[in-house]
Design a protein that fits this description.
This is Protein kinase domain-containing protein. By secondary structure, the protein is α+β, with helices and mostly antiparallel strands. It is built from seven helices and nine strands.
Length: about 210
């Protein structure tokens, strides 16, 4: 049990036993609605939201679990700005090092590069990438990488963060490695160009989070 992870209050079964109903903590809204609203967010709001997301995620990871579907709609809030991570339908147990896992997880805009590249293994860092995308979206009030499809998503990421070296793509699908190697290399752009309103501390943290992958 953790204050930043949605709690299960009761488990109810239908009379015929075919359906199960989960009764969870009551929350008022979610991060997607906050981002889409005209509500002004102060630096204190941003710090508190990010702190709670990372605290909840640290707890989930400490249990050897990777969420795999972190996105604004799965980050719930109440009127006191208290936050809880929810929707563990795609969560899986993962080893401390690396584990072979299914690829089609996470809404595309928040999907880590190694998942887009069909890497055979990945780590808990894929959740950190998702939190970084949510954090940037809070700052911008629009998605950081709003790709139309997986290829366009990867193109948006490399346009900002640069093209990875081929020797950094261990475990990636060979066809995708070949496709990447045939494209012009893109140098990284200053992250400030994507989040011009970020504080120096916020920008530094965001930079470290996207480098976590």
């Amino acid at each position: 049990k953790h204050e930043n992870v949605i709690g299960l209050r009761r488990l109810l079964l239908s009379p015929d036993g075919r359906d199960a109903y989960l009764v969870t903590d009551r929350m008022d809204s979610d991060m997607a609605k906050v981002i889409d609203s005209k509500q002004q967010l102060s630096d204190d709001h941003l710090k508190y939201f990010l702190y709670q997301m990372l605290c909840g995620l640290a707890y989930v990871h400490s249990a050897g679990v990777v969420h795999r579907d972190l996105k604004p709609a799965n980050v719930l809030l109440n009127a006191n700005c208290e936050l809880k991570i929810s929707d563990f339908g795609l969560a899986r147990s993962i080893d401390e090092d690396e584990a072979a896992l299914t690829q089609y997880v996470v809404t595309r805009w928040y999907r880590a590069p190694e998942i887009l590249l069909l890497a055979r293994t990945y780590t808990k860092a894929v959740d950190v990438w998702s939190v970084a995308c949510i954090f940037a979206e809070l700052l911008r009030r629009r998605a950081l990488f709003a790709g139309r499809d997986p290829v366009h998503q990867l193109s948006l990421i490399t346009s900002l963060l640069g093209t990875p070296a081929i020797d950094e793509l261990n475990g990636v699908d060979e066809k995708l490695v070949h496709a990447l190697s045939s494209l012009p290399r893109k140098p990284p752009l200053p992250l400030r160009s994507a989040v011009p309103n970020a504080s120096e501390a916020g920008l530094d943290l965001l930079q470290q989070m996207v480098r976590e992958i």
